[in-house]
Write a structure and sequence with these properties.
Elements lengths: L2 E5 L2 E3 L5 E8 L7 E7 L6 E6 L6 E3 L7 E6 L4 E6 L8 E8 L14 E2 L3 E5 L2
Parallel strand pairs: 2-11
Antiparallel strand pairs: 1-3, 3-8, 4-5, 4-9, 5-6, 7-8, 9-10, 9-11
Length: about 120
């Protein structure tokens, strides 16, 4: 069975940093593009970042460009989201997702085949 398990969330002050990890199992990790999404209370799930199968291409939501960096280590079946200069508006449950489709990673949640359980990120003073 496929499992994606996020970790690294928590409470951080505005301007602080967190690194999220997503460990994958039960799939051939290197053939999946990986995405990060987030969902705040009462809001729809939104795209945050994505990375191609070999890590050569990344895509970001405009509001996180220059602050967030996604990377992957295919030998460890793990994708990361480094979040810097965090803002209260970044508060959400963050999910990783795996996309089997050929081509660049997309921003649409329904493109992705597998999802993790999410990890809470709270940015507050």
């Amino acid at each position: 069975q496929v499992q994606l398990v996020e970790s690294g969330g928590g409470l951080v002050q505005p301007g602080g940093s967190l690194r999220l990890s997503c460990a994958a199992s039960g799939l051939t990790f290197s053939i999946y593009a990986m995405g990060w999404f987030r969902q705040a209370p009462g809001k729809e799930r939104e795209f945050v970042a994505a990375i191609s199968r070999l890590g050569g291409t990344t895509t970001y939501k405009n509001s996180v460009k220059g602050r967030f960096i996604t990377s992957r280590d295919n030998a460890k079946n793990t994708v990361y989201l480094q979040m810097n200069s965090l803002k209260p508006e970044d508060t959400a449950v963050y999910y990783c997702a795996a996309d089997r489709n050929v081509g660049p990673p997309t921003i649409a949640p329904n493109t992705y085949d597998y999802w993790g359980q999410g990890t809470q990120v709270t940015v507050s003073s």
